[in-house]
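Invent a record, attention on tokens:
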Amino acid sequence: MASSIQNEGLAQHVLPPAENQVLVLDQTSEPPKPRDISADFNYYGGPPESGPPTPYYVDRPQRYGVTPITQRLTVHDVREQEDQYTLDSTGFDFYTHTSAEKDFVDDEKIRSVYYPETEELLKKCKYQHRALFLSLLAAHIPARTGAPKVHIAGHTVRGQPLDSRSNTIPKITAQEATDSPTIVPATRSSPGPVKRVHIDLSYAGAFGYAAYHLPGEAETLLKGRFQVINVWCLIKTVLKDPLAVTSANSVFDDELVPVKSIHTHREGEACSVRPAAEERTDGGHKWHYPFKQTPGEVMLIKVFDSKTDGRARRVPHSAFVDEDFVSEDLRESIEVRALVFHPEDTE
């Protein structure tokens, strides 16, 4: 899962001066034409009476405790339909962000260069009425989250596949997690695309996550609106194993399955997702992706939002196999997870 976030204990970074921002609109290339495709998605397959799912051990090869339910579904390309997607309506959005960091090999450089860029991007995100790839360079654009505090919790760089995702995978026990010599810590090049439908944090897990990262401030900050946003982008243009996201309101809360996540120094909670019920008449889960996404096209994914007024609160997502590009180079991506606080929004 995307919850294998590195450097979780890092302090908040100071934002760079406005003149050092590297948020630009790339006008040198034309976006590709829309390309909807069919692809397989792996959902949680445990029956409701089976009890809690097997815990997820972060930074270790995963052995899922149940056989997934695989469904072949349509994935809609967002190209030329950009104005339909916002963080508050669908739970995801796209921005153009040309970073000064290109290789994403050095963790310290990621922290010193990419973290401040990401903070600045999030402070300018409106979260409403958002068109794809709007330039953020103009200084007169107001701060669009209204959030004076953005805290970067950590990042994950993905490259080589780490876990086996065959349809029959043995359960992992707590003893195995402690003693097995075959279970090794993940490295930068080991985590691969996660081809399971999931959300990185459950509703309860999001509050625990904030309390863990900001123990001295969480009680006060959590009195206002609180969000967890993943900022996901590619290190090179992706064709193999692209990332897809669902429209938030197409996935019901009773389809979410909380899963305990075991970290080195703490426990958390993520969510697996059940497939849409067959009796649904609204088309079920609606999947989306940007075909030929480039490193300058950043996807914002809402992991959690404390607001309960009808706006999108969380977005299941998953990598999927695009059968036209199975022989292409491995996908390389970076994901930064941020806590976004709106202290003035207490309603």
Notes: Residues 18-342 form one domain. The CA atoms of residues 91 and 312 lie 5 Å apart. The helical segments are 107-124, 174-179, 203-213, 218-221.
